[in-house]
Amino acid sequence: MTVTEPLLDVRDLTIAFGGKPVVHSISLSIAPGETLGLVGESGSGKSATSFALMRLLPPSATITGSIRLEGHPILTLPEPQMRTLRGSAVSMIFQEPMTALNPVMRIGDQIGESLLAHHPRTPRAELRARVIAAMQEVGLPNPEQRLRDYPYQFSGGQRQRILIASALINRPRLLIADEPTTALDVTVQAQILDLLRKLRRTHNLSILFISHDLAVISQIADRVAVMQHGRIVETAATADLFRDPQHPYTRKLLASAPTMQTDRSKPLATLA
């Protein structure tokens, strides 16, 4: 039987600020084409982990352990080489697109900037065609007419699609999605999840999907890692975790989310 090497392999990752650890010796892996959900309450260390994977934490942060992307260690890479990997091998999208997009820059230029960062000699006609194709792929209507529009002229869901187009225009193998649907209403949220599933199938894309919402995680992840106070307390296949959670924190997380079967006469479970 052939054993597939992980695309991303994290071992004993510890992150500290001012000597105080906020992430404690965590390990996780993502196979090619797999989606791993990283779930936990606010302040559990999820976003710090994602920024560490992109090497975007401030100089005050101390990072120890091992991060390997396609077998290559990235924690020790010089910054110019790491800058080459960002956007080409691994990309990231964020919770609130209006803070990630430049409000005074046309969206066609912003998407094109991601391509030019790695292919600066791309001819103008090819650049425009690639940007239009990226906008079409993420379902943005009338891309030829909307290239010159600004972020404020798009809805929240459309702005998230712009970020996804920008993140994937260089065909990275790993996408880190940090709470990408939290600011969206449930209908648009479902559309973005459908889009990510489609792009994953089309490009054999691996995704680290970070959220505090177990309902969202259940719709997109193959496996789930549960994080509490900077530690991963449980990792399991999504169906197994929802059917038979092993850790008390996971059980409380599941019990704190209302469902159609929840007894409304009783309070929801709370997290200590």
Describe this structure in words.
- With 272 residues, this protein is an alpha/beta fold.
- The protein has a domain at 8-98 and 176-255: P-loop containing nucleotide triphosphate hydrolases (Rossmann fold, 3-Layer(aba) Sandwich).
- Helices cover 37% and strands 24% of the residues.
- It contains eleven helices and ten strands.
- The protein has helices at 46-53, 79-85, 97-100, 107-118, 124-137, 143-146, 156-168, 186-203, 214-220, 238-243, 248-255, and strands at 8-17, 20-30, 35-39, 61-69, 72-73, 90-93, 174-178, 206-211, 223-228, 231-237.
- Strands 6-7-8-3-9-10 form a six-stranded mixed beta sheet, sandwiched between helices. A four-stranded antiparallel beta sheet has the order 2-1-4-5, with helices on one face.
- Helix 4 (107-118) runs parallel beside helix 7 (156-168).
- The radius of gyration is 19 Å and the shape is globular.
- It starts with 7 loop residues before the first strand and ends in a 17-residue tail after the last helix.
- The model has no long low-confidence stretch (mean pLDDT 91).
Number of helices: 11
Radius of gyration (Å): 19 Å
The strands making up the biggest β-sheet line up spatially as 6-7-8-3-9-10
CATH homologous superfamily caption of the domain at 8-98 and 176-255:
P-loop containing nucleotide triphosphate hydrolases
Mean pLDDT: 91
| Helix-and-strand structural type | alpha/beta
Following the backbone from N to C, one meets helices and strands in this order, namely: EEEHEEHEHHHHHEHEHEEHH
Low-confidence stretches: none
* CA-based shape: globular
Described by strand count, sense and barrel closure, the largest sheet is: 6 strands, mixed
Span of the ends, CA to CA: 45 Å
- Helix fraction bin: 25-40%
Number of DSSP strands?
10
For the record, the CATH class of the domain at 8-98 and 176-255 is Alpha Beta
CATH architecture of the domain at 8-98 and 176-255: 3-Layer(aba) Sandwich
Proportion of beta-strand residues:
15-25%
CATH topology of the domain at 8-98 and 176-255: Rossmann fold
